[in-house]
Design goal:
heterodimer, A: about 270 residues, alpha+beta, B: about 120 residues
Chain lengths: ~270, ~120
């Protein structure tokens, strides 16, 4: 909505007060954010999301509020939710690229920028971000770990069909690794969800007296995901489903060995 | 009383090392039909395993109608679950069971189950 079409703070406040189901809270939160009243904007947005948990613009606005507060990880989470709810939502893609560029996470920025270009290649901001990314790449300001230092990179060469490997702690916080194409936010969400699945699996195994959990395999038509506990961490391996199960199990074993080395190093 | 799943479940239970076979409504974790050895509480297994299956479907972004296969491996046995977001077949296996054989049996039975469900 353009500036001329904006409603006043009083109008928005009145609407939100009289109609709790109204989605005007998003606009009102944005107005508070722009005035620098971040706490009020945050409370308003969180309360509104309780009633409208899948409201795309509300999640986007909440991300902007978090970003303004300096809570970048929380902003990433919110924009990650927007991406899940509305993959074509250009503003969130642009915001993600900007944030990744600020943090010199160029690989993540590249992934998001490609997605943004697939939505609106000729958008001026998208073009500007492309130029920024190319300049950053030329300057060699990429602060991410060089590929050779990622312990799981060698597995992709060793096992064709490997989609990616993640190492997470018991709560699903991502420690290392990458599932290609989907981006860091999807990886984080996957790690958290599968960490929950591991807890469920532990309960089932205990209940049935099956002993300690050794792993979970989840197969779809495209992917075989394996979740394996290693010491107090989780290794998650994604393999294309056309790879034979035995070969896939070998890759998991190698990933477990690498994860044990990582855990032993205390990293 | 015989049900539509009798043959399917009995067939699975004849596979060596299978301690239980259940047809489960995934959304609520309730047993639709099942055969279990003594000592296996089918209602609790179904509820817990359905919860695991739902989470696995979420993790892999399952859409309506897409099938999933989930295998839980533990020190002394395994659970295999195959089906869709609404109905799934579960098998509880002892460690000694032949995994490949049971896996194949479960996948085939799940195909029949889903065909029956669509029927």
């Amino acid at each position: 909505m353009g500036a001329s079409g904006r409603r006043s703070l009083q109008e928005l406040t009145a609407e939100v007060a009289t109609n709790p189901n109204s989605t005007a809270f998003v606009e009102l939160a944005a107005a508070y954010r722009e005035r620098g009243d971040l706490e009020r904007a945050l409370r308003l947005c969180l309360r509104g999301l309780e009633r409208h948990p899948t409201h795309v613009e509300a999640h986007f606005e909440l991300g902007r509020i978090y970003e303004a507060r300096g809570d970048r990880e929380l902003a990433l989470d919110e924009w990650g939710i927007v991406r899940q709810l509305a993959p074509d939502h250009l503003p969130s893609r642009i915001a993600l690229v900007g944030l990744y560029l600020d943090e010199a996470r160029l690989a993540d920025a590249e992934v998001e920028l490609r997605e943004a270009q697939s939505v609106a290649a000729s958008h001026p901001t998208v073009k500007q971000l492309r130029q920024r990314l190319e300049a950053a790449s030329r300057d060699g300001r990429d602060s991410e770990e060089p590929p050779a230092l990622d312990p799981f990179d060698s597995l992709a060469r060793e096992f064709p069909g490997l989609i990616g490997v993640l190492l997470a702690d018991q709560e699903g916080q991502l420690l290392k690794g990458r599932m290609t194409k989907r981006g860091a936010e999807s990886d984080r969400m996957l790690a958290v969800t599968l960490s929950g699945a591991r807890k469920e699996a532990d309960r089932v195994a205990n209940y049935l007296g099956l002993g300690d959990l050794k792993g979970i395999v989840i197969e779809s038509s495209a992917t075989r995901l394996t979740v394996a506990p290693v010491q107090n961490r989780l290794v998650i391996v994604a393999m294309a489903s056309h790879v034979p199960a035995g070969r896939s199990a070998l890759a998991v074993r190698r990933a477990e060995e690498l994860a044990e080395v990582q855990s032993g190093d205390g990293r | 009383m015989s049900t539509a799943y009798d043959a399917l479940l009995s067939g699975l239970m004849r596979t060596a090392g299978v301690r239980g076979a259940l047809v489960v409504a995934v959304p609520d974790g309730l047993v639709v039909d099942g055969r279990v050895h003594v000592g296996v509480r089918s209602d609790a297994v179904a509820a817990l395993a359905a919860s695991l299956y739902r989470r696995a479907c979420r993790a892999t972004g399952a859409r309506e109608g897409q099938s999933r296969f989930v295998e839980l491996e533990a020190d002394r046995g395994r659970i295999l679950i195959a089906g869709r977001e609404d109905l799934a077949l579960m098998a509880v296996m002892e460690r000694r069971a032949n995994v490949g054989q049971v896996r194949l049996a479960v996948l085939r039975a799940a195909d029949s189950l889903l065909a029956t469900g669509q029927g």
